[in-house]
Amino acid sequence: MTQTAQTAAPLTPAQAFDALYAFAAPALVRQAYLLTGRRALARESVERAFQLAWQRWPEVAVDRDPAGWVRAAAYEYAMSPWHRLRLRHRVPEPPPAALDDRRLLSVLQSLPPPYRRTLLLYDGLGLGLPETAAETEASTPAAANRLLNARATVTARIPELAEEEELRRRLTELAGTELAGRERLRTVPKPVVVRTGGERRARLWTRAAIAFTVLIIGSTVFTLHTAPDHYEAPQAPAATVPGIPPRSGPGPLSLEDLELRTKLRNMSGKGPERLLPQLR
């Protein structure tokens, strides 16, 4: 009874996440590499997708296809046009060692991103056309048109892949994790590292959002305290009043004024008695 109860015990969220990671991560790294042609970006895309899945685990856990949820997130991150602005992405990466892989990867990279994604989902992973259209956020006719154009481009560049079965086999072989005799990609870190990294990133963004909110509130309060609360009419510009002579101070003393000042200074102690105090 105890062994049966332990077997039937539900997995914890961390255990369920680790199981999904172990099941889907290796193949997703290779798929992201086919989409981007860059090994580091492929690993980064899968890591970010699983970090996002861990942040939204209640939503992912009840999804009818958790692996598809993570795959869509990884594809969206991998094909973001903002990666072109990164300095390290301006340097081309070395191609795969096998000639067949190089040719097919070169053709895939020449396709427009929506065509590339549609071809990988339909012929590489075997998704149905409605599912492919839903994951690429396109109508079914639009997805079918993208698929036909992508196949035509691949066939023109690699004639031996004209047959749908052969093209599907090669894409499935490239997108798989067991690639005997071919270059193996190093997968993303262990699931516990991905989970802790996602939690750390979430805390960092939360603190940044709080700091930004506090800054906005502080700026608003400062503006409210320093901004004028009533209308003040502007002062009229100064104007000269006509008919009034300008104010001026005393001018320089003339020669007569200087002589009079000297005379008064010399006679101040010898003047009339009314000007001198008498001691009695």
Task: Give a short summary of the structure.
This protein has 280 residues and is mainly alpha-helical. The chain is built from 12 helices and no strands.
Question: What characteristics describe this protein?
Answer:
2 domains, 0% strand, elongated, mainly alpha, 280 residues
Could you explain the architecture of this structure?
The chain has 280 residues and is an all-alpha fold. It folds into two domains: 11-93 and 188-218, no CATH class; 97-183, Orthogonal Bundle (Arc Repressor Mutant, subunit A), CATH 1.10.10. Helix content is 62%, strand content 0%. It is built from twelve helices and no strands. The chain has helices at 2-8, 13-36, 39-55, 57-61, 66-78, 99-110, 113-124, 129-135, 140-157, 164-175, 191-226, 255-266. Helix 2 (13-36) runs antiparallel to helix 3, helix 3 packs across helix 11 (191-226) and helix 7 packs across helix 9. The longest helix has 36 residues, at 191-226. The protein is elongated. Residues 233-255 are annotated as: Disordered. Residues 102-152 form the RNA polymerase sigma factor 70 region 4 type domain. The chain crosses the membrane at residues 204-224. GO terms for molecular function: DNA binding; sigma factor activity. Belongs to the sigma-70 factor family. ECF subfamily.
| Element-by-element helix/strand order | HHHHHHHHHHHH
Radius of gyration of CA atoms, rounded to a whole number: 42 Å
The biggest sheet, with number of strands, parallel, antiparallel or mixed sense and barrel status, is: none
* Helical proportion, percent range: 55-70%
Unreliable segments (pLDDT under 50, ≥5 consecutive)? Answer: 177-183
Q: How many strand elements?
A: 0
Q: Which structural class best describes the helix and strand composition?
A: mainly alpha
Strand content: under 5%
So what's the overall shape?
elongated
GO molecular function, one term: sigma factor activity
Protein name: RNA polymerase sigma factor 70 region 4 type 2 domain-containing protein
Transmembrane segments: 204-224
Organism: Streptomyces aurantiacus
